[in-house]
Records
---
Amino acid sequence: MNTTRPVSKVLLLDDSPAHAEALKSFFDEHNLIALKVRDSGRLATVLRTNIDLGGVLLADDYGGSVEQAAMLAARINALRPELPIILRRGASSTTQALAQALQSIVCASFDAADLGALRAAIDQYIFSLDFPNALVRGIAEITEARLGALFKGVTVRRDTPSVVRDRIIFGEVFSLIPLEGNWCRGYMLMQAKEEPLLAMIERERVDSEGDTNAAHACFRDLNSLLGELTNLIWGAFKDRFLAQQGARAASQVQVPLLVNHKHRYISFGSDNPQLCFRYLLNDAASGQSVAIDQRFVFSLNWSPEDFCENTVDIDDLVESGELDLF
């Protein structure tokens, strides 16, 4: 697997052992992590969870027939309409049956004997945006450094970056800040579960103040810390990736953001996939841990051909007196 490129999780609804090995090799080669539901009756429950997905691969006979697969595809489309459904056609299915039952729901189809169509569908519907390696690496470096500075004495571990297409909110609290430059316009989203983050804030207070009877952290403390973290990351992102780029015209089109709290759903008005990072902060002494979910949603403009990283010239730092040569 190419470790310099973000991965994407796909839900695999295909019970055919004849194609399992070929599909597994394909997933490994194309940075895909396939997940299977042990009990198809639990599919709706799985789809309602906070699982990050880039798409669904569905066999046209999953459930026993084309009709059953079509009913399942319709259910997936109703629960998670943002997820592309890619269909594996079997030899027993007829074009007419597929056209009537599935064509209006699936975004693409392929034959397991020729995976070229699957490769094209993955590129178009899951990895449709090209995230430069320098951007992915830089975001991780920036965020890990700021988390380490805000939470002293904790271990910061990062999962492999991923590309997701779902719009499910992670946790109970999130912050949102716009990103604007010549090569991008969108948002950075920071999300967390409330109780573990509050516990981590209280641990930080006890360690810094030495007072075990200090007042318990409340949601205002959490809001303040998440706001500070967001600003720190945003400032470093701007300096590193947007510093030498002039903003585009202020009269650009905006789209509304939609949040449905009941269904833990947020939409940025675009079908573009999101670049997702997840960080786990762990305090070995107390056993406390908290997960921070970070997403970059370039929903208003994305021009990776204009991307550039603001690298600092060592000679300039020496000349300015910031560094000395040993």
---
Amino acid sequence: MAAVVVTLAVGFAAGAAWAIPVIQRDLVGKAADRIAAVGVSGVIVSFSGQDATVTCTSPLRDLVAVKAAVLDIKGVRSVGFSSGCSTATSTPTDNSTAGTGPGANSVPDSAITITPVVKLAADNKVTISGRVDTAAQSDALVAAAITSFGSTNVTVALSTNVQAGNQSDAIVDRFVSLIEVFAGRLKSGAAGIEGGKLYIKGIANDSTSLSALTIAAKNAGATKGDIVLSLDSVAIISAVKVTVTFADNEMTLTGTVGTQSQKVSLVTAADDAVSRRNVTESVTLVDEPTAEADADQMVIEDLEALIRAMPANLLSGEVSYDGTILRSTGVYLDEASKLVFESVAKGVGVTPTLTSRPDGGQSEAASMQQQLNDYVAANPFLFTSNTPKLLPGSETLLDRVAEIAKEFTGTSIEVQGHTDNEGDAIRNLNLSQARADVIVFELVKRGIPPEQLFARGYGEARPKVPNDTAANRAINRRVEFVVTAG
């Protein structure tokens, strides 16, 4: 092979003007012979270097057979087809059964997707079938299987699409990474790509192998619902059975986990989401975990992601794992919040069941305004003197105000800042605006859609009582809310 390469290099260097046409004429002649051998006529093959282009006088019924025949020629790198070669009825069939008879498939080329499947039998025999887009993808899958199980154990019945690009390279690369961990871990089963998604199902050799396969599948992009693994034909029962509910800015965690670190992870996620004082947990450890801790840890990570996403996007909600299925339900704040939560949920393989907040009319707006003002009158926001900085302890007040404000959609909330009449009027006006801005900022942090809030400072212009005593001036230094519908 080295001598051939050198000869070609010298030939090109010494006389490319004659060498290229000679080589291409040779390839054209061989291509014509190969195509005729598969019973196809009415085509013209041309070459640009090692890349062939097939031009057709009429549509071909079996593009795959033609492509395979040309690619079989030594030195050919790729085969493309002119637009006249294919129609909605010109569909590739599997290379192993290529033909032009009445049984040919009539699905349009554009509808074909990659469907590679690697099946492992109990006798360690592997079959690779289905379809990929490129020869390089096929080579990578076959090489991974041979590396894991040996060439004598691998049977290949894999075909390639026609005129496909490399858009599917990424998922095939991830599939290859999954196949590479099969040896010594998967007793029997199958893995593949279907509908653009990775899946794996089968029986693992032991619990350690089960964990390794599960982690590899998830790292490759398979969702929990597409990972179906068991030990000795008996499905693994997870040690994790957890329910987390969220309402009124409080979280409650119940259920069981396999390790103390898993419990800590869940509680920490809840603490981060709503603060420790609003978390109630009664999560216990099982006496004897029924699954490998690593496999359950993946469930814990999925639960953590959903827990952290609830407060900012849901008025209320619940996430749970019953040992088999991860679920999520809730009431979302607005369309943007819905999309964010759905994205997080789908990232861990869950399609959440979500409903919208009820619409608030005039009566609901009036009720919300009354609740807000009654609450802050009894529990006023306190600021450092002459600054917009809230004093410690305001978090609980903000949490409750946020929960009241979240109850209905379709309402507009004006956050009003007021001061007493001591000091400069302009400075008081600016201070009241800054304090209202701080309240709005804190409410947005707690999940109130920013478009629902408006901050306005009135300074000393609207006293609630005469500014004639220290007690009255304290009353006038206040935050109030005006809620309107629509």
